[in-house]
Known about the structure:
The chain is mostly helical.
Amino acid sequence: xxxxHDFYQFAIAPFQEFAFMRRALVATLALALSSAPLxxxxxxxxxxxxxxxxxxxVLPGVAxxxxxxxxxxPALSIGGFLAGVVVVALAGWISRHTELKEDASLAAVxxxxxxxxxxxxxxxxxxxxLLHILFGNVLGVDTEGLLLVAGVSSLSxxxxxxxxxxxxxxxxxxSYLAASGGRNTVYQQLFLMLVVLNLVASxxxxxxxxxxxxxxxxxxxxxxxxxxxxAQLVNSAVQxxxxxxxxxxxxxxxxxxxxxxxxxxAGGFYFLSLIFAPRGWLPRILRRPHLRA
Length: 293
């Protein structure tokens, strides 16, 4: 009984005693459920760096919302989403009308957007405001923020389920999708809009600079464990959820910022996967003598 009591006090009691810990955990789990599977789809399309680019691209819109409405969550979220949409549309227009590929055009546009956003925030706010937007505050999630994260996560999961077949075809065989009456551009744009939505929902908890970490690290790790896409989607969500829980616990007991610790925990799972996963380093070493024989 003593061991069970000690486990309860260590692993569960903080969430029972403090409402801010419960809200932070629910927000992190909701993000894990939608962001990490989207990261798997990004890696499947060889667009892993798109998430990083889009996480920075929302900053001017967030800055504009901050300048006109302060730290109002609806204003920051709408501004960030609109900025992400504009950057995606602009990058697509550049790639269609020039010889630049979409990844190159997006890289150029998002760097300018990031710099512009930092300048806007720095000129109209304090250093604390800039740090809040760039790095987030998962322990400061209120009911309004929790509803936003839960709504975006639910919408993302439902749309991914409804668009699953089209997204797969658009990733693996776009010519077949076009021949069967589907429109490749529509699926791609809808998918990128989901990515932008999740990054906007993440900025309050993890900040714009680290929101992509919870999206991409579990996704990359999951690909080392499984060959099939459904298994990768589930694995990525589980890893993201475990990283969120472990990060909150470590930050609570060590008194360090929660957002960075969550990302470090996700990085820890990634390095463990690099070593022990079926496609990782250790199984490859163990298989070599058998292959030589």
